[in-house]
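hiii, so i know i said id send this last week but things got crazy w the move. better late than never?? heres the sequnce for the chain we talked about at the cafe, plus the structure i predicted for it. fair warning i was half asleep when i ran it
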Amino acid sequence: MECFHCKGKMLRSHAPFSADRNGYHISWESIPAWVCSQCGEALFEENEVSHIQKALEQIDRETMSLTSKIA
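okay and structure toks below
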């Protein structure tokens, strides 16, 4: 597989992922991904993206629950 950014070789490895949203910051240090051996760009496959989205949706619900109790 070729990197979209620099055309380097993508290798199966792990990469960090972080998100700032809805009043919180979350980060994972090691998500399975394709990582460019040249520039370090990460590409997450559909399965990992789906898991990340589900986790963020759950955290959104929990965050909403917490903040609605304050108002």
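btw The chain has one domain: 10-70. thought thatd interest u
miss u guys!!
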